[in-house]
Amino acid sequence: CIWWMTIWLQKGEMLLKPHSRVQVFEGAEDNLPDRDALCAAQAIQQLAEGLTADDLLLVLISGGGSALLPAPIPPVTLEEKQTLTKLLAARGATIQELNTIRKALSQLKGGGLAQAAYPAQVVSLILSDVVGDPVEVIASGPTVASAHNVQDCLHILNRYGLRAALPRSVKTVLAQADSDPHGPYSCGHVLNVIIGSNALALAEAQQQAEVLGYRAVVLSAAMQGWDAPAAHRADRYQCHGHPPLVPEASVMA
């Protein structure tokens, strides 16, 4: 009983005080965009569009932001965008490919949030969940101008055999983007800062291990996929040109 009471008190300290100016929106159950997340995205867009050159917009971004900030470009509906994303994922599309399509169909991704906030200054503090920390990919880059164009999207859709099955609304949005006379916009009023990532965590783990007297080796900060069985790790390590591991004297991060 004491343990549960302690947890309740700790959570209670995190609850908003009465009359707080902070608003909390919940959505994207199971990491999928939904109506609650759409309402949150609309509120965020409205706030950003009301800012002036005297304002500073502080944005906290982490993995999962793509699902938490859905704002399809009309006439694309949330359901159509969900369906297309699921089809791409089911056919093996990478996170980079998924986010390229998401950005092309979104009002806020691919720098859309930064554009909505202009002329206010924007500072984004980013927790990366993507290998290599490409800021334009993390949460589909709401404060980073997209470097992709319509042809990139069509190439992805062709690769997975989905171009012919696109809803009319998606074709309309892609056609409008392709004929936009203004072209891509810049985000010169934005500062994007990575404050947490796999590479930063590995470096800190290595440093702490060395403080404890271990010889720590970071094998890679770019490995993706399922973990290999322990019996194969030493072989894989030697294949990369390293000497055999000595478990008693080494710590792998």
TrEMBL record:
Pfam families per the UniProt record, alphabetical: DUF4147
Subcellular localization: Cytoplasm
Enzymatic reactions: (R)-glycerate + ATP = (2R)-3-phosphoglycerate + ADP + H(+)
EC top class named in words: transferase
Xref: SUPFAM superfamilies: GckA/TtuD-like (SSF82544)
Record GO terms (molecular function): ATP binding; glycerate kinase activity
Domain MOFRL-associated: start-end pairs: 17-174
Cellular-component GO terms for this entry: cytoplasm
This protein's record includes keyword Kinase: yes
UniProt keyword terms in alphabetical order: ATP-binding, Cytoplasm, Kinase, Nucleotide-binding, Transferase
Keyword Cytoplasm: yes
Entry-linked InterPro entries: GK-like_C_sf, GK_N_sf, MOFRL_assoc_dom, MOFRL_protein
EC number: 2.7.1.31
UniProt record similarity statement: Belongs to the glycerate kinase type-2 family.
Protein name: Glycerate kinase
Organism: Propithecus coquereli (Coquerel's sifaka)
Gene this chain is encoded by: GLYCTK
